[in-house]
Amino acid sequence: MTTDATVLLPALAAQAGAAAHPEGGGAPCACGSTTLADRPDATVVRHAGVVAKAHAPGTDPDELALRLSAAARVPDVLLPPLTTTAATVRDRLVTLWPYGAPVDPDDPGAAPWEAAGALLARLHRTAMTGPLPPMRGPVRAAQAVGRLRTALSGTPHPAGPPVLRAWAALPAWARAEAPMPGPPALCHGDLHLGQLVRHPDADADADGDWRLIDVDDLGSGVPAWDLARPAAWYACGLLPPGEWTRFLTAYREADGPAVPAGGDPWPVLDVPARALTVQTAARALTKALAAGRPLDEVEQALVDACARMIPIPHQLTRGFPT
Amino acid sequence: MKCPKCHAEMHTYNRNGVQIEQCSGCRGIFLDYGELEALTRLESQWTQPMPPPPAPQAYPAPPAPAWGAPHGGGHHGGHYGGHGGHHRHKSFGHMLFSS
């Protein structure tokens, strides 16, 4: 639990409960509340059909407002917020959402890869009508590498140098040290299987009606970034080629603009997939150092990929300067 | 003639108008002077592209980057993920759902 969980969790439950029972006048109910997540960067509590999320400490309220508005404009892609203004609970910004059933973490084989690809394609084709902050993918990667540097300063580890050198070899934009290149698209910024939920109105047995959640990294940027985490898993030998192909094919069939419609997508995916591999390796190594345990074989596969990257120049495409 | 390697009998075959000797034992091939060049010339004159060879897998492996896993990625795939039905590595199962 986070340090202020004793205050934050009941406050979030109260917010979600009040939104779930608007006629209740704060009267007690029998629904009960469930803590869905309690991490340093997010605390999420569900009450009946409503979810209250406390965003990361230090979240910029103006940027969050723009991201909420953007999500509300594409309700067929992103689960729309219940309100587009954030409340403040203690020092945290809190938003309210409908509850959608997530992918079962114990059954990742049932992951809706086709829906993920099609949703991203639709997101990337969305016209950006209003001002939007940059997509935060590169910032998140830089933060992960920063935390790894801090962890390594006290405890050197042989996996540290290959990860840091692979990071240093990336172009500045992928390290959040320069603006992102190319024509910008509306991007999610942090795609993984935990970011997909079924729309609350969907038939529980129907194979469809998925939506993306989590607007914290949403923004304008390089759309290939949103494909790059599955691409990185595939490149590292973790995601089977069939699942990667289902995801990529669905994205292309929905006219996703991040990659060419046919042929080799890697000239576009190379740099973002390297960055996501480094970010994932950095997070894994930081956690292993904190726990004082060795890397497992999956984590080692990420570090090995970083080591292989260093002597290979990244693939350059038009509009993607170094 | 006898094979210089295993000493079995060699038989003459005609390949695209070029006579070659193949050993009946070790299947090695003997080329006379100029025959290799003749075969190479025939190959270079082969202007019609050949149909691609049948994929060894149910579907061709999708492209992967040069830094990809040698025994995973686009080559043989799913070293840790496994093809359908395999048990997915617990650590990767968790990774699928986290930032």
From TrEMBL, chain A:
InterPro entries: Aminoglycoside_PTrfase, Kinase-like_dom_sf. This is Aminoglycoside phosphotransferase. Residues 67-261 form the Aminoglycoside phosphotransferase domain. The keyword Transferase applies. Keywords: Transferase. The lineage of its organism: Bacteria, Bacillati, Actinomycetota, Actinomycetes, Kitasatosporales. GO terms for molecular function: transferase activity. Signal peptide: none annotated. It comes from Streptomyces bungoensis. SUPFAM superfamilies: Protein kinase-like (PK-like).
Automatic annotation (TrEMBL), chain B:
Residues 73-92 have a biased composition (Basic residues). Signal peptide: none annotated. It comes from the Bacteria. Residues 44-99 are annotated as: Disordered. Residues 2-40 form the Transcription factor zinc-finger domain. It holds the Pfam family Zn_ribbon_TFIIB. InterPro entries: TF_Znf (IPR027392). Residues 49-65 have a biased composition (Pro residues). This is Zf-TFIIB domain containing protein.
